[in-house]
Design brief:
With about 90 residues, the protein is mostly helical. About 65% of the residues lie in helices and about 0% in strands. It has one domain. The protein starts with a helix and ends with a helix. It has six helices and no strands.
């Protein structure tokens, strides 16, 4: 998978917070990515993860500590327009 250096760093940060490997995280993303490519789904997940964690409430529900929110993962299979409408 080809990602920018900053995206790899963000993935490693998520994995550090969640106590998992990059392979484990990418496997979770891959299982729920829908029709998107793994690269695109990984970018979207990374963005959603940090956006969810950017608020106090979001931080608690983002799944920090090996409890990644299934809601975040489930939204990977949702077309972008539908995901926006759900917010």
């Amino acid at each position: 998978m080809r990602l920018e250096q900053e995206m790899w760093e963000a993935l490693r940060e998520i994995c550090r917070r969640e106590d998992m490997t990059v392979h484990e995280l990418c496997s979770l993303i891959d299982e729920r990515r829908g029709l998107s490519s793994l690269t695109a789904a990984t970018r979207v997940f990374t963005l959603m993860y940090f956006r969810a964690a950017a608020t106090d409430e979001g931080h608690a529900s983002a799944g920090h500590g090996r409890r990644i929110s299934h809601e975040l993962l489930d939204r990977l299979g949702t077309p972008i327009g539908e995901a926006r409408a759900a917010q």
